Amino acid sequence: MTASWKTVYEGQHEGRAVTVRESNDGTFKVLTKQTVHDEGIAYQDGHRFVHVSPASVGEQVESEVNSRESLREALMELHFSSLSVDAICDGLH
Q1: Residue 1 — very low, low, confident or very high, per pLDDT cuts 50/70/90?
Q2: Beta strand 48-52 with 16-23: parallel, antiparallel or unpaired?
């Protein structure tokens, strides 16, 4: 079965556009531009999964996670402040 994605958040934080999409299986994708050179990460801890693609400053970057809890981690890995992370997660619809 192919995942079906819907946009659940769009906004501007810390000078960059942020889009969050949710699939019909509860997976989330975050799309934004990177503000620092980052090697990216990928890890799984039990049922939680976080993946952040490697990117250089100014490049489009994508993160994929499998829960709202993991979404917070991914946003922090993307170098957003706690205030922005809270605003994004609280703004999901």
Answers
A1: low
A2: unpaired
